[in-house]
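Trying the structure run again after the queue cleared.
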Amino acid sequence: MRATLFASILLIPVIAITAFADPDTSTPRQQLESLDWLAGCWRGPHDGGIWEACYTTAEAGMVLSANKEIKHGRVVMIEFERFDVVDDQVVVVPYPFGRPSVPFKLVKHDKKKRRAEFANPEHDFPKRIVYHRMSKDSLHILVEGEQGGREIVMELKLKRE
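Done. C-alpha coordinates:
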Protein backbone atom coordinates (compact mmCIF):
# COMPACT_ATOMS: atom_id res chain seq x y z
CA MET A 1 0.00 0.00 0.00
CA ARG A 2 2.80 2.41 0.90
CA ALA A 3 4.57 1.73 -2.39
CA THR A 4 1.34 2.30 -4.35
CA LEU A 5 0.61 5.54 -2.48
CA PHE A 6 4.20 6.72 -2.97
CA ALA A 7 4.09 5.89 -6.70
CA SER A 8 0.75 7.70 -7.04
CA ILE A 9 2.13 10.82 -5.38
CA LEU A 10 5.12 10.78 -7.73
CA LEU A 11 2.91 10.34 -10.80
CA ILE A 12 0.54 13.22 -10.03
CA PRO A 13 2.99 15.94 -11.13
CA VAL A 14 3.86 14.01 -14.29
CA ILE A 15 0.19 13.58 -15.17
CA ALA A 16 -0.49 17.25 -14.41
CA ILE A 17 2.42 18.44 -16.53
CA THR A 18 1.38 16.20 -19.41
CA ALA A 19 -2.27 17.22 -19.18
CA PHE A 20 -1.55 20.96 -19.16
CA ALA A 21 1.40 21.09 -21.55
CA ASP A 22 0.44 23.12 -24.62
CA PRO A 23 3.03 22.44 -27.30
CA ASP A 24 2.68 24.47 -30.49
CA THR A 25 1.89 21.81 -33.06
CA SER A 26 0.72 24.28 -35.69
CA THR A 27 2.34 24.31 -39.11
CA PRO A 28 4.46 27.28 -40.21
CA ARG A 29 1.57 28.41 -42.46
CA GLN A 30 -0.82 28.29 -39.48
CA GLN A 31 1.70 30.23 -37.37
CA LEU A 32 1.93 32.87 -40.07
CA GLU A 33 -1.85 33.07 -40.37
CA SER A 34 -2.12 33.50 -36.60
CA LEU A 35 -0.17 36.79 -36.96
CA ASP A 36 -3.39 38.39 -38.20
CA TRP A 37 -3.43 40.46 -35.01
CA LEU A 38 -0.82 42.72 -36.66
CA ALA A 39 -3.36 43.83 -39.29
CA GLY A 40 -4.22 47.51 -39.31
CA CYS A 41 -2.55 50.90 -39.19
CA TRP A 42 -0.64 52.02 -36.11
CA ARG A 43 0.98 55.32 -35.11
CA GLY A 44 3.06 56.59 -32.21
CA PRO A 45 5.97 58.76 -31.07
CA HIS A 46 9.53 57.81 -31.94
CA ASP A 47 12.79 59.67 -31.37
CA GLY A 48 11.27 63.14 -31.48
CA GLY A 49 9.01 62.31 -34.39
CA ILE A 50 6.19 59.98 -35.39
CA TRP A 51 6.29 56.35 -36.57
CA GLU A 52 3.48 55.01 -38.75
CA ALA A 53 3.07 51.34 -39.63
CA CYS A 54 0.37 49.58 -41.66
CA TYR A 55 0.12 45.77 -41.80
CA THR A 56 -2.02 43.67 -44.11
CA THR A 57 -3.82 40.50 -43.07
CA ALA A 58 -2.10 37.12 -43.44
CA GLU A 59 -4.54 36.03 -46.14
CA ALA A 60 -2.93 33.86 -48.85
CA GLY A 61 0.14 33.22 -46.67
CA MET A 62 1.83 36.61 -46.50
CA VAL A 63 1.76 39.75 -44.35
CA LEU A 64 3.12 42.97 -45.84
CA SER A 65 3.81 46.24 -44.08
CA ALA A 66 4.68 49.79 -45.01
CA ASN A 67 6.28 52.01 -42.38
CA LYS A 68 7.52 55.57 -42.26
CA GLU A 69 9.21 57.85 -39.74
CA ILE A 70 8.24 61.52 -39.81
CA LYS A 71 10.34 64.33 -38.28
CA HIS A 72 9.83 68.07 -38.65
CA GLY A 73 7.13 67.52 -41.25
CA ARG A 74 9.34 65.31 -43.46
CA VAL A 75 9.59 61.59 -44.06
CA VAL A 76 13.09 60.64 -42.90
CA MET A 77 12.85 56.86 -43.14
CA ILE A 78 10.73 54.28 -44.91
CA GLU A 79 10.67 50.54 -44.41
CA PHE A 80 8.68 47.67 -45.83
CA GLU A 81 8.39 44.20 -44.28
CA ARG A 82 7.42 40.84 -45.73
CA PHE A 83 6.29 38.03 -43.42
CA ASP A 84 6.05 34.62 -45.07
CA VAL A 85 7.12 30.98 -44.90
CA VAL A 86 10.56 30.17 -46.34
CA ASP A 87 12.12 26.69 -46.06
CA ASP A 88 9.33 25.58 -43.68
CA GLN A 89 10.05 28.49 -41.29
CA VAL A 90 8.12 31.71 -40.65
CA VAL A 91 10.37 34.68 -41.40
CA VAL A 92 10.17 38.45 -41.62
CA VAL A 93 12.37 40.28 -44.12
CA PRO A 94 12.67 44.03 -43.51
CA TYR A 95 13.33 46.41 -46.39
CA PRO A 96 14.84 49.49 -44.70
CA PHE A 97 14.83 52.46 -47.10
CA GLY A 98 13.23 50.06 -49.60
CA ARG A 99 16.30 47.78 -49.83
CA PRO A 100 16.07 44.09 -48.85
CA SER A 101 17.78 43.02 -45.66
CA VAL A 102 18.36 39.60 -44.13
CA PRO A 103 15.57 37.26 -42.95
CA PHE A 104 14.71 36.96 -39.28
CA LYS A 105 13.27 33.62 -38.16
CA LEU A 106 10.29 33.26 -35.85
CA VAL A 107 11.86 31.95 -32.61
CA LYS A 108 9.04 32.49 -30.09
CA HIS A 109 5.35 32.63 -30.79
CA ASP A 110 2.44 32.99 -28.39
CA LYS A 111 -0.93 33.14 -30.15
CA LYS A 112 -2.85 33.78 -26.95
CA LYS A 113 -0.66 36.71 -25.87
CA ARG A 114 -0.38 37.93 -29.48
CA ARG A 115 3.38 38.09 -29.27
CA ALA A 116 5.94 37.06 -31.90
CA GLU A 117 9.72 37.23 -31.64
CA PHE A 118 11.99 37.06 -34.67
CA ALA A 119 15.78 36.79 -34.50
CA ASN A 120 18.92 36.70 -36.60
CA PRO A 121 21.86 36.55 -34.14
CA GLU A 122 24.39 36.85 -36.99
CA HIS A 123 23.11 40.30 -37.98
CA ASP A 124 24.31 43.51 -36.29
CA PHE A 125 21.19 45.68 -36.14
CA PRO A 126 18.70 44.44 -35.54
CA LYS A 127 19.36 41.04 -34.02
CA ARG A 128 15.89 40.68 -32.54
CA ILE A 129 12.44 42.08 -33.41
CA VAL A 130 9.48 41.54 -31.09
CA TYR A 131 5.88 42.38 -32.01
CA HIS A 132 3.37 42.38 -29.17
CA ARG A 133 -0.28 43.35 -29.44
CA MET A 134 -0.84 44.69 -25.92
CA SER A 135 -4.56 45.44 -26.32
CA LYS A 136 -7.19 46.05 -28.97
CA ASP A 137 -5.67 49.44 -29.81
CA SER A 138 -2.02 49.04 -28.76
CA LEU A 139 0.92 47.45 -30.59
CA HIS A 140 4.46 47.46 -29.18
CA ILE A 141 7.48 46.72 -31.34
CA LEU A 142 10.91 46.16 -29.78
CA VAL A 143 13.99 46.20 -32.03
CA GLU A 144 17.38 45.27 -30.52
CA GLY A 145 20.91 44.89 -31.80
CA GLU A 146 24.22 46.68 -31.96
CA GLN A 147 25.87 49.24 -34.18
CA GLY A 148 29.47 50.31 -33.91
CA GLY A 149 29.93 48.21 -30.77
CA ARG A 150 27.00 49.96 -29.04
CA GLU A 151 23.85 48.20 -27.87
CA ILE A 152 20.81 49.77 -29.56
CA VAL A 153 17.22 49.33 -28.36
CA MET A 154 14.33 50.86 -30.26
CA GLU A 155 10.88 50.63 -28.69
CA LEU A 156 7.75 51.68 -30.54
CA LYS A 157 4.52 52.10 -28.59
CA LEU A 158 1.90 52.43 -31.29
CA LYS A 159 -1.85 53.06 -31.13
CA ARG A 160 -4.42 52.02 -33.70
CA GLU A 161 -5.18 54.67 -36.30
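Confidence is low (pLDDT under 50) at residues 4-21. Worth checking whether this holds up in the mutant runs.
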